[in-house]
Specification:
The chain is mostly helical and 117 residues long. The protein is built from five helices and two strands, in the order ααββααα. It binds zinc ion (ZN). Zinc ion (ZN) binds next to helix 3.
């Protein structure tokens, strides 16, 4: 049995079709976080609908997110601290990107070996 998407959203999140469509219009059909359109595909190969993001503590619907952003929030368990830590990690390592890569170091090690012979 296939359940209509709007029926699923109404049953799971308690929001009627008109509210989902109003959020979709408010977000201009894009993810409320990254501003991009959905690109994830369903098992049938169709572009998926934007996910209904909600607070897991209160159940309050926050907005519509793409699959990627929804998964990131879910894996971070909605923790601002975890997400901040990840931002700091990325920023710290972005600076380190100007330092030699593992491949550079391997080549350098090879050069030293050639010089030693
Ligand atoms: Zn997104």
């Amino acid at each position: 049995m296939t359940v209509d998407r709007y029926t699923y959203i109404k049953c799971w999140y308690g929001i009627p079709r008109a509210d989902y469509e109003a959020m979709l219009v408010a977000h201009k059909g894009k993810c409320a976080a990254c501003g991009e359109g959905e690109t994830a595909l369903s098992a049938k190969g169709d572009v998926r609908w934007l996910c209904v993001d909600h607070c897991h503590k209160t159940g309050r619907v926050r907005g519509l997110l793409c699959d990627r952003c929804n998964n990131i929030l879910g894996r971070a368990k909605d923790s601002v601290d975890v997400l901040q830590d990840l931002i700091e990690y990325l920023e710290k390592n972005a600076v380190a990107a100007s330092s030699p890569s593992v491949q550079d170091l391997t080549e350098l090690k090879g050069a030293r070996l050639c010089l030693a012979v």
